[in-house]
User: Which sequence fits this backbone?
């Protein structure tokens, strides 16, 4: 909304949807716009146009697991990938680290 207001457009909000599929269905029906992340967006319905934002948007991703679950190889592998990706993206050191 700040982007719209920055362009001198006051949005008229009649409905808000959290789910991406619902947002895309509303947009396809001509009933709105949305800022949606690429992650998990999936296919876009016919008639819906995707336009990249000019300014980099940022999100926080947190992982939580039971303290004793890190003994499982699948949990350890997932956490290692998340940590490596954070380092690659320059986000390492943010938040509280979990068990190693």
Assistant:
């Amino acid at each position: 909304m700040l982007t719209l207001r920055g362009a001198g457009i006051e949005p008229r909000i009649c409905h808000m949807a959290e789910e991406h599929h619902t947002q895309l269905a509303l947009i396809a029906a001509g009933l709105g716009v949305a800022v949606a992340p690429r992650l998990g967006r999936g296919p876009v319905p016919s008639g819906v146009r995707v336009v990249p934002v000019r300014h980099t948007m940022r999100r926080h991703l947190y992982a939580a697991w039971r303290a004793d679950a890190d003994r499982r190889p699948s949990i350890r592998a997932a956490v290692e990938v998340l940590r490596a990706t954070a380092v690659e993206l320059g986000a390492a050191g943010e938040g509280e680290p979990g068990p190693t």
